[in-house]
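request received
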Amino acid sequence: MSHNSNSPQGLVMVNTGDGKGKTTAALGLALRAVGHGQQVCIIQFMKGDPNYGELQALRQYLPMIRLESTGTTDFVDRDNPTPTDLDEAERGIVMAEEAVQQGYNLVILDEINVAIDFGLIPLERVLRLIKNRPPHSHLLLTGRYAPQPLLDLADTVSTISDTKHHFYKGIPAQPGIEH
Ligand code: ATP
Ligand code: MG
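response:
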């Protein structure tokens, strides 16, 4: 590929907004990075359901991508998270802090913006993780409701808007599309 290969510059990227495609775009980035032989770690928050196509595909076809899921199969009550919700989020952020320090080329923190918004993870802890990362590490944080201080710190913010969604036509979630 013809581009200047300056020394790698670790980027902070955010996929947010209320439209569809934040997580799937993150998976596309993981695919791109692993294609260059880069080390990739994906940590999911508030996603305990094993029935996502990407989980099966990654485990079966791309086992070199480290994948950690946290959370339960239940919806989190924003106003009243359970102790398990909090414990699982803590488990996720500890793994994220360790993964970042381990120097992966790309760490994806899927739905972490929602975990911050729901009060499961303190924003300050995430900002500290970003600031303390090794200079070559790329970070991608996904999920709606990304807080302003995170957007301020990011190099790239993609806000995906909900121009239309088939859900509003009454079309239920489809395997391979929604999960
Ligand atoms: P995807 O995982 O498909 O890339 P996403 O990460 O952008 O989507 P989330 O906000 O994490 O979307 O939502 C999870 C699921 O909810 C997605 O599969 C998506 O199709 C669905 N969804 C997204 N936006 C809406 C909406 N406005 N109404 C109903 N369902 C939605
Ligand atoms: Mg998502």
